[in-house]
TrEMBL record:
GO CC term (a single one): cytosol
The encoding gene: pabC
Catalytic activity: 4-amino-4-deoxychorismate = 4-aminobenzoate + pyruvate + H(+)
EC number of this enzyme: 4.1.3.38
Xref: PANTHER family: AMINO-ACID AMINOTRANSFERASE, AMINODEOXYCHORISMATE LYASE
Keyword vocabulary terms for this entry: Folate biosynthesis, Lyase, Pyridoxal phosphate
Cofactor section: pyridoxal 5'-phosphate
Group of enzyme by EC: lyase
Name of the molecule in the record: Aminodeoxychorismate lyase
Organism superkingdom: Bacteria
Species lineage: Bacteria, Pseudomonadati, Pseudomonadota, Gammaproteobacteria, Pseudomonadales
Keyword Membrane: no
Length: 271
């Protein structure tokens, strides 16, 4: 199921700048019982992205269309795409451009229960993330780095891949954010140079702080990751998956990871 600007459709015009240049943003949301989960968080992030990219996104229209689409979808995953709209050839954004809203629906992924319960194995991706502070943190439409990284492994034993930047710093998973625990402190990589600032990452930092857990956002080297007491990845579709193994390093599913899973357990259903 696909809607374009509020109407059922099966494509976008060939002059859309999202297609031509990746000129736009997107959000991926779980839909349960006809309601999109964490809608306010996703729209807040989308709004910040619109400000950074100078896209005139109408958040009220986005909310209205997401609610209507989700009611029709029922249960599944809704991907909300906002492009700058149509334009002529050339990189320069048109002076007057009408943003386009595209929403697609798909079934909920069937993630194994064991991923959250027993943890996952993570693949060490060779593809590196380029450093671009102007785009850092945004969930923009340019995702070729993730496409290349995900193509590196076919073995179903790996549920996720680890991505580093060109300097070797740990940044994120291919489709998740990453946290480590060291001496009971919750650490997550700085996304000042590259990476996606996920909705679940933001929620976890907030709820951990409210629960009295010390948190830090900082540069994390690969060596520091390997030396961590606990490691987990997260996103807004599945919550938290403990990391059990990366290369030869094996971790337990630690107590702080379990505590954080409980802190966000309510987000596994629609709110």
């Amino acid at each position: 199921m696909t809607w374009v600007d509020g109407q059922p459709a099966d494509g976008v015009p060939v002059h859309d700048r999202g297609l031509a240049y990746g000129d736009g943003l997107f959000e991926t949301m779980k839909v349960v019982g006809g309601r999109p989960a964490l809608l306010d968080h996703h729209l807040d992030r989308l709004g910040r992205g619109c400000q950074r990219l100078a896209i005139a996104g109408d958040l009220a229209a986005l909310r209205s269309q997401m609610l209507a689409f989700s009611a029709t979808l029922g249960t599944g995953v809704a991907k909300l795409i906002l492009t700058r709209g149509d334009g002529k050839r050339g990189y320069a954004p048109p002076a007057a451009c009408r943003p386009r809203i595209v929403i697609t629906g798909s079934p909920l992924p069937d993630f194994p229960f064991e991923y959250a319960d027993q943890g996952i194995h993570v693949y060490p991706c060779a593809t590196r993330l380029a450093e671009q502070p102007a785009l850092a943190g945004l969930k923009h439409l340019n995702r070729l780095e993730q496409v290349l990284a995900r193509a590196e492994w076919q073995d179903a034993a790996f549920a996720e891949g680890l991505m580093r930047d060109v300097s070797g710093r740990v940044i994120e998973g291919v489709f998740s954010n990453i946290f480590i625990v060291a001496s009971d402190v919750l650490l997550t990589p700085s996304l000042a140079r590259c990476g996606v600032a996920g909705v679940m990452r933001e929620i976890l930092l907030s709820r951990a702080a409210d629960a009295g857990i010390r948190t830090q956002v900082l540069d994390i080297s690969f060596e520091r990751l390997l030396d961590a007491d606990e490691v987990f990845v997260c996103n807004s579709l599945y919550g938290i998956w403990p990391v059990r193994q990366l290369e030869a390093r094996v971790w337990p599913v630690g107590p702080l990871t379990r505590k954080l899973q409980r802190l966000v357990a309510d987000l596994s259903s629609n709110t």
